[in-house]
Every structure is written in C-alpha cells, then in structure tokens.
Amino acid sequence: MSEQNKNNLKISFGELGQSEAWLDDESEGQLMLDVYQDQKNIYVCSTMAGVDPAELEVSLNNDMLTIRGKRSREEVNEAVDYFYQECYWGNFSRSIILPVEVKPDKISAVLKDGILTVTLPKAERRQNISIKVNS
User: Is the distance from CB of 11 to CB of 2 less than 8 angstroms?
Assistant: First the structure.
C-alpha cells in the first residue's frame, strides 16, 4: 500500500497515482463490478483483462471506493475494417459507496489472472447506547 491514513487509502499498483493523469486522453468507460459479502468482508471484483498493473489505481475516500485504470491497445491499425468493435480501450473508472464501514488499514487488492479482487474487512458494528438525559 502506498498512502494510508484514518479516512483515506490508496493502493497503487503502478506509478500513476495522480488523478489528473486519468483525464488526459479521452472520456472514461465505466467498469463493471461484482460486489458481495460474507460475515467478515466485502468483496469487489472486476475483470481486468489487458490491463497493466502499472495502469491501475484503487482508492478509498471515507466510504467511497474508486477503481481507475487504463486498458491500452498495443497497436492501432487504421486500415483495418472491423466487423465488430466491442472491446473498450482507454481510461475506465468506477466509484461505489460502501454499504458498511470498513477497516482501511486491512484492505487488500490482488490482480490475478485478469481478475481484480479488493477485500474490505468490515469494521465492528457500533452498538446503540441509551444515554440518560439529566435535567
């Protein structure tokens, strides 16, 4: 993990880490996510085929998780006549509001076999405490 504090977390696989760098070329595509939970964690998964880990950034700001990246095409041949062109190339991002509080110092992100998995350990639930009002 690169930068951490109580309310902000940034996991950078590469050197980018600057928000402005993501907006240089063109508009961003939206990333598709699977978000699920078990008793201890929230999991956020997404396919990242063709994404260089150096072009990937995962950040947490309060309760908002953001995943940004860039999928680069090795070679662009302008003379090619496509039958279908459905693959997205370029910048992408997705931000979601987390449904529960998480422990920022325990978050992990793993990119394996083209799948990014972010594991967010749930924080202890706060108890409701009744407070007596004195007059």
Answer: yes
CB-side exposure of 50: number of CA atoms within 13 Å?
Answer: 12
Bridge partners, residue 93, by sequence:
30, 68
What the block records as the tokens of 125 is: 């639930």
| Cβ pair 104, 60 in contact under 8 A | yes
Higher pLDDT pick, 25 / 126: 126
Rounded Cα–Cα distance for residues 68 and 94 (Å): 7
Number of domains in the chain: 1
Residues forming beta bridges with residue 47, ordered by sequence position: 115
Q: How many helices (H) and strands (E) does the chain have?
A: 0, 10
- Angstrom distance (rounded) from CA 45 to CA 126: 27
Does the pLDDT of residue 11 top 80, yes or no?
no
Integer Cα distance of 11 and 24 in angstroms: 21
| Domain of 103, in residue numbers | 3-121
pTM exceeding 0.85: no
Residue 130 lies in a domain: no
The answer to whether residue 129 is domain-embedded is no
